[in-house]
Design a protein that fits this description.
binds uracil; five-stranded mixed beta sheet; 50% helix; alpha/beta
Length: 237
């Protein structure tokens, strides 16, 4: 890595609130196989293509959904989710914003760019995690999702998790955490604890939008990410 690239990387880590550096990581069986110069198994490849097909069916249902009249009328498009069909880790956010509504991809605006930095600080890349939201349509003015809207979208994200079967889910912010865990507890009290959701281990942290408004909280998120990395077997120095 050139000196300039290294400087940029360090600046990016600083913006993500990183205070120490991960050392090395071993992610999936596929990664381990690649590291050893072998191919992932055919069974794994087949399972992944089955999951991709199953996700494509739900994606089409979401794209046609009219359950929330106001949201369906106001959207440019639905924002389903992005990532590999068999991820170890999912990031679960609240709802698309203006940038996501236009692009159809979750977390691409300012908060998304910060999330990308957080993911990379964990020595992961966006390509190897799955990112999805509670709501698939943008609420007007980026207001909080209403409970009826969450109820309408619940079957979609539940089916996504059912297909993805991630080992880990990281809830970003209050809406994602309270919805997934079916609780009214504050995000502050849900942090620093592990939960279980249908076989996935769940951790909660602050939403990147909150970090944009309150940069000192990046330190807390980095503590949460270190806890997550430790559980995933990613070494942190
Ligand atoms: N905030 C979210 O919760 N999700 C997005 O996709 C973008 C911003």
């Amino acid at each position: 890595m050139s000196k300039r690239a290294l400087q940029q990387r360090l600046m990016s880590l600083d913006q993500a609130g990183v205070t120490s550096l991960p050392r090395r990581r071993v992610h999936s069986n596929a990664d381990a196989a690649m590291a050893q110069g072998t191919q992932p198994t055919t069974a794994a490849a087949t399972a992944a293509s089955d999951r991709a097909s199953a996700l494509a069916i739900i994606r089409d249902e979401v794209a046609a959904c009219q359950r929330c009249g106001e949201l369906a009328a106001g959207r440019t498009q639905t924002v389903f989710g992005v990532g590999p069909p068999a991820p170890r880790l999912c990031f679960f956010g609240e709802a698309p914003g203006a940038d996501e509504d236009v692009s159809g991809v979750p977390f691409v605006g300012a908060a998304g760019q910060l999330l990308t930095k957080i993911i990379e600080a964990c020595t992961l890349s966006r390509d190897e995690v799955y990112i999805l939201n509670v709501l698939k349509c943008r609420p007007p003015g980026n207001r909080r999702p209403e409970s009826a809207e969450v109820a309408n979208c619940r079957p979609f994200f539940e089916q996504q998790f059912e297909i993805l079967q991630p080992e880990f889910i990281c809830c970003l912010g209050t809406t994602a955490a309270q919805t997934l865990l079916d609780t009214n507890e504050s995000i502050g009290s849900l942090r620093k604890r592990w939960f279980e959701y249908r076989g996935s281990r769940v951790i909660c942290t602050y939403h990147p939008s909150y970090l944009l408004r309150n940069p000192p909280a990046k330190r807390d998120v980095w503590e949460d990410m270190k806890r997550l990395m430790e559980a995933m077997g990613i070494a942190v120095s």
